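Record Right handed beta helix domain-containing protein, 177 aa.
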Amino acid sequence: MKVSTLYITVSFCISILHGITLQSVFDAAGPGNGYDKYVVLEQEMIYTGEVGVYEGDVFIEGNGAIVDLNGGLGIWIYAEETLPANLDIEFVTIINGGYNGLTFNGTSTGNISNCNFIFNQYGIQMMDQTNISVKNSNFIHNYEYGFAVRGTLASYDVSHSNFWENAAGDCAYNENC
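=>
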């Protein structure tokens, strides 16, 4: 009896220390509110790791949660004309990305609202023929740029957002930003 109690206690402590992976919550999410995947994060919870969206319409309801990328690639969205992908995300703080907090590639689309991007290489980076909207978000202490665009075909709208202390600049990297 005591061994099983000890095992449960140790397992619980390890899960708290390592956090819940973003991938596990993403995989467990089902459809909802018109989205193919409706991911709900818990308030004051830290999620770890990264996730890729390569098909469908995805919503991440952050509720003030933190996603700690632990130096990983971040949350990336990739689409092609024949296989569209969209990410709408709100009320999430994304930290410690070894590359980008969010990456949009191909023909992917997205709406980012009320999010924080802190201590990533780039807060958000988009390229190719992507189309995103960013509003009411903060880009703070990213190691390169807060918001970066590669190429001239990507389109974006950034409104009511703040940029502080991003090492290489707030919004740049290419001629389209």
